[in-house]
Amino acid sequence: MIDLHAHTTISDGTVSPRELIQAAKKAGLTAVAITDHDSIDGIDEAQSEADRLGIKLVRGIEFSVAYGRNRLIHILGLGIEPRNEGFMSIYTRYRQVRSLKLTHVFNKIHSMGVQFEHEDVEPYITGGYMDRQAIAKFLFAEGYAPSIKHAWMNFLDHIEYTDGELITPEDAFSAIHEAGGKAFMAHFHLPIGLKGYSDEETFIRLKELKEMGLDGMEYFYPSYSEKESLRCAQLIEHFGFLKSGGTDFHGANREHIRLGIGEGDFAVPDELLENILPCVCTP
Question: What is the model's pTM?
Fold first, then answer.
């Protein structure tokens, strides 16, 4: 059993990269992926613990991608080598540009009645660049929101993204492929997926994304309904996509979701790794 979608404190989870590996080992997983939002900063710590405990770490990232009119989608990069020069060039430029685009976010939150300065958020930065995750962590830590999730719901989700604050599909796919990874659409059934598109437009969008570099879709996901699972299977077959799957674990930020098993009747088969990693072997 594996889990190819999990978050740590580097983004919006509540367990550290080391703790995530320990939880995966305890849950009996053979492999786990760290897919923090727009960040690879937890991978080294996780790799060290994975080597110690003898569990396979799938190095990953979940990019927030600008797509369509006022829409973003989440693209998982799985099996990446983050030290790759091509990947780091795109990734670092993206992080730098995004950090420079936050003035309007600060101004909007000020207009909502929360007064704070840039330096107040600096202790919550990971990876050297400020982003919305750091602001969400600040809002939660300082009592402006009861959780990081609510910091997003009550503040950040109401603030539109400006040009350059999100990575483009082309750059996301290029970065993932430069790093030797595969690119998957996460949770297609959500608004941060393809929800709201007609069946015909969904086909058009997926055809376009495949031509850009999309390799697959997240076939196993805890909140899929039976109808959504069937729809996902049909789309995967039609486009010849690879399958991925995971719980989208966030620790205490999604208390009903447990690593590897979702809500208790969920499992991602090991054989999915055969088409994602160039060599599936014991760590």
Answer: 0.93
